[in-house]
Design goal:
Pfam families: Trp_halogenase. GO terms for molecular function: monooxygenase activity. By secondary structure, this protein is α+β, with helices and mostly antiparallel strands. 30% of the residues lie in helices and 28% in strands. The chain has twelve helices and 29 strands. The strands form seven sheets. Strands 1, 2, 7, 8, 9, 10, 11, 20 and 21 form a nine-stranded mixed beta sheet that branches. Strands 4, 5, 13, 14, 15, 16, 17 and 18 form an eight-stranded mixed beta sheet that branches. Strands 12-19-22 form a three-stranded antiparallel beta sheet, covered by helices on one side. Strand 4 (75-79) and strand 5 form a beta hairpin. Helix 1 runs parallel beside helix 4, helix 1 (14-25) runs parallel beside helix 7 (289-309) and helix 7 (289-309) runs antiparallel to helix 8. The protein is globular and about 80 Å long. The termini are far apart. The structure holds flavin-adenine dinucleotide. The site of flavin-adenine dinucleotide has 36 residues, from helix 1, strand 3, strand 8 and helix 7. Flavin-adenine dinucleotide (FAD) is lined by residues 10-16, 33-36, 42-47, 122-123, 155-157, 161, 175, 213, 257, 259, 276-277, 282, 284, 287-290, 293.
Length: 465
């Protein structure tokens, strides 16, 4: 006899726990299957400061802050010919976590939100019997378990349990890594170093070990499974910053995993969704994998909620596919620039294959507006329907497009922008626009929105006369 659930989430990493908790809070019956028993080791231990607002949204910030993870304020970076002994982040620090405990905090939060969490439950690929009719078999210590579900979330990491074509977005890169003890001071600085055909990353983990990782082309280690450990030790010995770590004690086997960024071509359907690395895996050079997985899963929660409600399916599917594509493009641009910096210093094939010169980002002026100024909508503004998140759902709203926007915009600062531009088909004074109902959220905010539109050329000075 199979257990019955509304949503079956496969994978209890940051993406799976985020969407599971979100859907449970929205009233869905959610079961989460996680193959491992937490805490377990997992790569992805540097979390930049920009993760903090997401931890707030998940309601786990205080718990993460109390967990005793390191709060790095500096790193030693050898990159693009520069040897910067210390890089101060400036603002508040991020976290250097061990993912076993970090992920357990998120998993416990999901359980508190009402998710039925099963650890040591390894799911087999789900079988779709018909629309909203799935069966998932899982292996558990108590024997096989069958779960019937209406909706499947694939949060199983970069391999993905739902299948589908994974498109590698750059040249193939692998990470070779191990955990070391007897090395340097606990809480020491993160180390990043560019080499000839590889780059290195090492950081102290709060459990007292150091993770030392070498990122290199897959050809470099292909066909060397027997002497992987020896090759890894040699790569560490060749490094300026990590060679002393290689003199410590290796506490784990040497592991190797794919680390090229990749995207799944079909991330969502009417009764399933892929989140986190199952949908899009970032290049670890950005240290943004965990926060990207959480952010995507937050958006994915509204997408899944809309699909489960059975209304707005097309909008939800389009919204999610577009967002993932935009995330991937932005991420590849940012990561490519880092490789490009090093390529300019050392133009080897490894760096060339991954580098992208910085694109000329459009620069918009920051001009003030005068209350008496007469403004009119620019002729290039067009109105379209676009899917956006409204509350907990994806909805289709009227939006504007313009050559200076990289995507349709429906709201600015929470204010619907199409009605504002609607009435600007004829010259209207700024003072009237800022006091108008369509942007009644306070004069300063309304003025800021108008200035944003004006500086991007979406509204213009009315022609004289
Ligand atoms: C070498 C390397 C270094 C990285 N460094 C960083 C970094 O410094 N900072 C950063 O933010 N990101 C980093 N990343 C990326 C980061 O690890 C991922 O982006 C992040 O873990 C993705 O989260 P996720 O929830 O999608 O998947 P995961 O964290 O991989 O979670 C997937 C979960 O699904 C479970 N699972 C898999 N199959 C099944 C199954 N059949 N049944 C049940 N459960 C299953 C797994 O046990 C796992 O717990 C790095 C990645 C690599 C490869």
């Amino acid at each position: 006899m199979a257990e019955r659930t509304g949503v079956c989430v496969i994978g209890g990493g940051p993406a799976g726990t985020t969407i599971a908790a979100g859907l449970a809070r929205l009233g869905h019956v959610v079961t989460l299957l996680e193959a491992e028993q937490f805490p377990r080791r997992h790569e992805g231990e540097s979390l930049p400061p920009s993760i903090v607002p997401l931890l707030d949204q998940l309601g786990v910030r205080a718990e993460v802050e109390r967990a005793g993870f390191f709060r790095p304020t500096a790193a030693i970076v050898h990159w693009a010919g520069q040897r910067r002994p210390q890089t101060d982040w400036g603002g508040s620090p991020g976290f250097q976590v061990d993912r076993g405990r970090f992920d357990r905090i998120l998993l416990s939060a999901a359980a508190r939100a009402g998710v039925h969490v099963l650890e040591r439950a390894t799911a087999r690929p789900p079988v779709r019997r018909g629309p909203r009719d799935w069966t998932v078999e899982a292996l558990t210590p108590a024997g096989p378990l069958a779960i019937d579900a209406e909706f499947i979330v694939d949060a199983s990491g970069r391999r993905g349990i739902l299948g589908g074509r994974k498109r590698r977005l750059t040249a193939p890169t692998v990470a070779v890594y191990g955990y070391w003890s007897g090395v340097g001071p606990a809480g020491g600085e993160t180390r990043v170093e560019a080499g000839e055909d590889r780059w290195y990353w090492a950081a102290p983990i709060p459990d007292g070990t150091w993770n030392a990782t070498v990122f290199t082309s897959s050809e470099r280690i292909k066909g060397r499974p027997g002497d992987l450990a020896a090759a890894y030790r040699q790569l560490l010995a060749d490094s300026v910053l990590l060679s002393e770590i290689g003199c410590g004690r290796l506490e784990t086997t040497v592991r190797v995993c794919a680390s090229s960024p990749q995207a799944d071509d079909s991330p969502v359907g009417v009764d399933w969704i892929k989140v986190g690395e199952a949908a899009f895996a970032v290049d670890p050079i950005s240290s943004q994998g965990v926060q990207t997985a959480i952010a995507q899963a937050l958006g994915g929660t509204c997408v899944a909620h809309t699909l489960l409600a059975g209304a707005g399916t097309e909008a939800a599917v389009t919204y999610y596919a577009n967002r993932l594509r935009e995330d991937a493009d932005r991420h590849l641009r940012q990561a490519g620039v880092l490789y490009h910096e090093q390529w300019r210093h050392r133009p080897t094939a490894f760096w060339a294959a991954r580098s992208r010169p910085a694109a000329d980002e459009p620069r918009f002026p920051d001009r003030p507006l005068d209350g008496g100024q007469l403004l009119v909508r620019a002729p290039a503004v067009r109105f379209v329907s676009a899917p956006v998140i409204r509350g907990d759902f994806v909805r289709t709203e009227r939006a504007i497009v313009h050559p200076n926007l990289d995507r349709p915009i429906a709201f600015l600062g929470g204010v619907p922008v199409a009605p504002l531009l609607d009435r600007m088909s004829h010259p209207t004074p700024v003072w009237r626009l800022v006091t108008d109902n369509s942007c009644s959220d306070g004069t300063n905010r309304s003025l800021a929105i108008l200035r944003w539109l004006w500086n991007r050329g979406l509204v213009e000075d009315a022609p004289p006369g």
